[in-house]
Amino acid sequence: MNLLAIESSCDECSAAVLKDGELKSVVISSQLIHSEYGGVVPELASRAHMELIVPVVEESLKKASFSKEEIDSVAVTYGPGLAGSLIVGISFAKAFAASRGIPVVGVNHMEGHLYSAFLEGDKPEFPFIALVVSGGHSMLIHVKEPYSHELLGQTRDDAAGEAFDKVAKLLGLGYPGGPVIDKLAAEGNPKAFNFPRAFMNGESFEFSFSGIKTSVLYLLKELKYDPENRDDKLVRDICASFQAAVIDVLVAKTIAAAGKFRVKSIAVAGGVAANKGLRTALQAAAQTMGAKAVFPRPLYCTDNAAMIGIAAHFKYLKFGMASDLTLKPIPNLPLSFLN
Ligand SMILES: Nc1ncnc2c1ncn2[C@@H]1O[C@H](COP(=O)(O)OP(=O)(O)OP(=O)(O)O)[C@@H](O)[C@H]1O
Ligand SMILES: [Mg+2]
Questions:
Q1: Residue 332 is assigned to a structural domain of this protein
Q2: Which of 167, 303, 304 for mutating ligand 1's site (highest number of atoms within 8 Å of CB)?
Q3: Main-chain dihedrals φ then ψ at residue 37, nearest 5 degrees
Q4: Are residues 59 and 198 located together in one domain of the fold?
């Protein structure tokens, strides 16, 4: 199966080509225009997707040395995401499939993140626990077999990536916040400030990250912090202490879930999975319980079409190719709960 995969749910316009589940090419065009607004502007994102989708698909085909005629199925993200952004990818995918008489399948964006650990290298073994931590979601999932998911818990308020972005904004560090906090945290003292770790007691697999962000806000008010005139050591210490609080919660809950369901593999995905501190801490914690934690390379942690392609491959193996030319965007699409 020669598959063209398309991802346009937020501010990355991406296309990938896979042959029998093996990645042949991926092109990701990130829309830089949003950084000056401190977050993604939906109207600008959909307009940019309209300009980018054709050149991005053409480049992915060229990089894979495939012609349009050699593609025999199309997979596209149909949610969750921004309606105006999703509709560009879906419309393109349906038109491409209809004009060539080939099937088009919809893929859940979060299931794309979930299966991104299968793109290359060391892969998780079923059953496994997946920690999906991105800009809009924080989820712990028990993946019993391909496309059999049990959602164990998710965030009650902010997502982990959202907390990184909001704290970076408070500190005046720009958008997105994750990469810059990750870098500064490596040079700071993680014990300088004690930020709250929510829901650490008991068996809950739910998360809450808004309290950490509010604590950072109160600290900055108390210190009369001025982003224009900042003390670099203080910023590094706040970043390190904030990141340590987020990592403590993510690691403790993921390890507890792996222990409860007696799995030997843990897969971490989504933009926050690129975090160096999280990678080191979770790998070490998994090792002490005889499990292994697998992370995609950073390029495949944030939004990309390669992950949509690999999820489509697993979906195809489980359900066959159910083409749907009536596919529509579903901005709040939940994870499939299949047993
Ligand atoms: N090194 C890093 N450390 C921590 N967070 C990071 C890092 N790199 C990226 N992020 C965060 O990852 C998020 C982006 O990830 P991703 O592209 O998966 O999210 P999204 O697609 O916006 O959300 P969703 O997938 O939930 O719809 C941002 O919040 C960003 O700050
Ligand atoms: Mg995403």
A1: no
A2: 303
A3: -100, -5
A4: no
What is the distance between the alpha carbons of residues 296 and 287, in angstroms, rounded to a whole number? 18
Residues 76 and 192 in one domain: no
Centroid of ligand 2 to alpha carbon of 134 (angstroms): 6
Tell me, yes or no, whether 189 lies in a domain. Answer: yes
Domain range holding 74? Answer: 2-114+303-319
Q: Are residues 47 and 173 in the same domain?
A: no
Q: What is the pTM of this model?
A: 0.94
CATH number, residue 184: 3.30.420.40
Does 168 share its domain with 24? Answer: no
Task: Kindly state whether residues 216 and 110 are assigned to the same domain.
Answer: no
The ligand 1 atom nearest the CA atom of 177 = 31
Which atom of ligand 1 is least distant from the CA of 110?
25
Residues at CB less than 6 angstroms from ligand 1: 10, 81, 109, 113, 134-137, 161-162, 164-165, 176-179, 182, 270-272, 274-275, 302-303
Tell me which residues of the chain have a pLDDT lower than 50. Answer: 339
Cα(119) to ligand 1 centroid in Å equals 18
Burial class (CB in 10 A: 0-12, 13-18, 19+), 146: middle
21 with 169, same domain: the answer is no
Q: Are residues 29 and 131 in the same domain?
A: no
Ligand 1 centre to CA of 100 (Å) is 35
Residue 169 lies in a domain: yes
CA 245 to chain centre: 20
Do the domain assignments include residue 196? yes
Protein residue with its CA nearest to atom 6 in ligand 1: 178
Q: Please give the number of the atom of ligand 1 that sits closest to the Cα of 277.
A: 3
pLDDT score for 72: 96
pLDDT of residue 339: 46
pLDDT of residue 338: 57
**Tally of domains within the chain:** 2
